TrEMBL record:
Its cofactor is FAD. GO terms for molecular function: flavin adenine dinucleotide binding; tRNA (uracil(54)-C5)-methyltransferase activity, 5,10-methylenetetrahydrofolate-dependent. It comes from Thalassovita mediterranea. This is Methylenetetrahydrofolate--tRNA-(uracil-5-)-methyltransferase TrmFO. It is an enzyme of class 2 (transferase). Residues 5-378 form the MnmG N-terminal domain. Keywords: Cytoplasm, FAD, Flavoprotein, Methyltransferase, NAD, NADP, Transferase, tRNA processing.
């Protein structure tokens, strides 16, 4: 079998997979269809483009499963975390980046690597020989998607994903809005003032919800059916669940004090987060939407401080697809139907049924290392189950119920219990610290084992 590793898709997962395998000494060919073939969500041809948010979420590696995943990726010399650190923006306790320079740095790092070459153009069929990783993400092209469906003999699952709008900072009324992270979270003043807050009274909130519910929404194509992923619901879908759902979700007013009116607590607050290093763009946090463009401008300008807002990008919604991985992939992320044939085909990233930038990149990291080890003749087990990466891969390749499989973020609910610790909310802090301590130990041991094999 050819010793090259072919990776289809230059998103976060494909980029990380290429980086990991190339650093292990394997020759990598990265296949990318953009910009020759465009997608609904992508704006550039860069590798590692972030199409929805610019945040990798919490960076707390002791009390948060996402932050723990950050730690593991850094420990494994991950490209995505390296470039995120280089282009980090203030975001309280979160890891947010200046998205365009971030993607440009990812692209340049891959192009400069001596073991990586790039071939542009669409891959439309599953290969019949060689080592491959399919990391085409939730926006897998129609032709390749049809080939995957024909191979698996199973219906591919789908969900709808949404994008939040981006506002020009200069168009925001700072006589109304103010800068503050919730609960002043962050170690520096810049971090403690990482979010821009727009306060609402009860009357303003009621009027906003009414307009949101009445606004014209995007209609799906005939026969296009899918569910929503709960972690990325459009705001109007949340609002349909109850009048106060948004006020207890992305518009919650807790942990914030309005310096323009400190005596009166806002009834609701809309938060915006810096989207670039210059501070000229802000995205509306949690405001994914399926409203039509005209309706978006009318409804969002009802938000105090955004009455004269100009939008660099409006929100949108698109259909994402993913595999029923518990039935289709083994614990090495390989397509079971191709085991023992002339082709070793792995899947990585969101197409496997993980949700989120961090989770996608982590699955790319894991797939890249597993594929490289296979090519080099090394015996490498998948990441240990008690690590964040291992808990996630265990869930999607066997731990989840196949009949009800849906996209999954990393979370401590995927972790095996630590003996002797209390359950419930009161024991949560100690329990989470025990999870993260255990995970770091077993993950580092896993990395050390690989280092020993390479030497």
């Amino acid at each position: 079998m050819d010793k090259k590793l072919h990776i289809v898709g230059g998103g976060l997962a494909g980029s990380e997979a290429a980086w990991q395998a190339a650093n292990m000494g394997v020759e990598v060919v990265l296949h990318e269809m953009r910009p020759e073939v465009e997608t609904f969500a992508h704006q550039t041809g860069s590798f590692g483009e972030m199409v929805c948010s610019n945040s990798f979420r919490s960076d707390d590696h002791e009390q948060n499963a996402v932050g723990l995943l950050h730690w593991e990726m850094r420990a494994a010399n991950g490209l995505i975390m390296q470039m995120a650190a280089k282009h980090r923006l203030p975001a309280g306790g979160a890891l947010a980046v200046d998205r365009d320079p971030f993607a440009e740095s990812v692209t340049q790092a891959l192009l400069d690597h001596p073991n990586i070459s790039v071939e542009y153009g669409e891959v439309t069929e599953l290969p019949t020989e060689g080592h491959w990783i399919i990391a085409t993400g939730p926006l897998t092209s129609a032709k390749l998607g049809a080939a995957i469906q024909a191979e698996t003999g199973a219906e591919r699952l789908a969900f709808f994903d949404a994008i939040a709008p981006i506002v020009y900072a200069e168009s925001i009324n700072m006589d109304v809005a103010w800068m503050q992270s919730r609960y002043d979270k962050g170690e520096t003043e810049e971090e403690q003032k990482a979010y821009l807050n727009c306060p609402m009274t009860k009357d303003q909130y009621d009027a906003f919800i009414a307009a949101l519910m009445a606004a014209e929404k995007t209609e799906f194509h005939d026969g296009e059916t899918a569910t929503y992923f709960d972690g990325c619901l459009p705001i109007e879908v949340m609002a349909e669940r109850g009048h106060d759902t948004l006020r207890f979700g992305p518009m919650k007013p807790v942990g914030l004090t309005n310096p323009h009116d400190p005596e009166n607590k806002p009834y609701a607050v809309v938060q915006l987060r810096r989207d670039n290093a210059l501070g000229t763009l802000f995205n509306i946090v949690g405001f994914q939407t399926k409203m039509k463009y005209g309706a978006q401008t009318e409804v969002f300008k009802m938000i105090p401080a955004l009455e004269d807002a100009s939008f660099a990008r409006l929100g949108g919604i698109h259909r994402n697809t993913f595999l029923n991985s518990p039935t289709l992939l083994d614990d090495q992320m390989r397509l079971k139907s191709r085991l023992g044939t002339g082709a070793s085909i792995r899947f990585a990233g969101q197409v496997t049924g993980v949700e989120g930038y961090v989770e996608s990149a982590a699955m790319g990291l894991l797939a890249g290392r597993l594929a490289a080890a296979e090519i080099l003749g090394q015996d490498l087990e998948t990441a240990p189950q008690d690590s964040a990466m291992g808990a996630l891969i265990h869930h999607i390749t066997g731990g989840a119920e196949a009949k009800t499989f849906q996209p999954m973020n990393v979370n401590f609910g995927l972790f095996r219990p630590v003996e002797g610790l209390k359950g419930g909310r009161r024991g949560r802090k100690d329990r989470y610290k025990a999870y993260t301590d255990r995970a770091k130990q077993v993950f580092q041991e896993w990395l050390d084992t690989q280092a020993t094999q390479e030497n």
